[in-house]
Amino acid sequence: QVQLVEFGGGLVQAGGSLRLSCSLSGSIFSIYAMGWYRQAPGKQRELVAAITTGGSTNYADSVKGRFTISRDNAKNTVYLQMNSLKLEDTAVYYCNVRGRITTLSGNVDYWGQGTQVTVSS
Question: Can you spell out the DSSP letters for the chain?
Fold first, then answer.
């Protein structure tokens, strides 16, 4: 079964940096995209950044210029470098992978369990 393992969450002071990583294990036929979502208290889950296998990226307006997403397709791993962190970046961050298990199936979403990022003043 496909599983996602996340690392890098924690507590950081405003203006600091953190780097998240997410690795996929298990059998999967192909991956379309990998990315990061987050959910803050009292808010809906939102897309932070995503990257396709071909290298196209998409960022939320609130993180442009501060966060950078990258991936290693051979290792099925995605990274999120977070710089100049703000208090409003505090949230649970979820790794997401979209792909297909077999050549006959459509794309499905897989999710990590989430990692807490807390930014303090």
Answer: --EEEEE--EEEETT--EEEEEEEES--SEEEEEEEEEE-TTS--EEEEEEETT--EEE-GGGTTTEEEEEEGGGTEEEEEE-S--GGG-EEEEEEEEEESSTTS--EEEE---EEEEEE-
Closest CA to 16 of 110, 106, 118: 118
- Over residues 89-111, the pLDDT tens digits come to 999 999 999 999 888 888 999 99
What's the rounded Cα separation, in Å, for the pair 30 and 54? 12
- The token pair that represents 106 in the structure block: 């459509």
Beta strands 57-59 and 46-52 are antiparallel
Express each pLDDT in 45-54 by its tens digit: 999 999 998 8
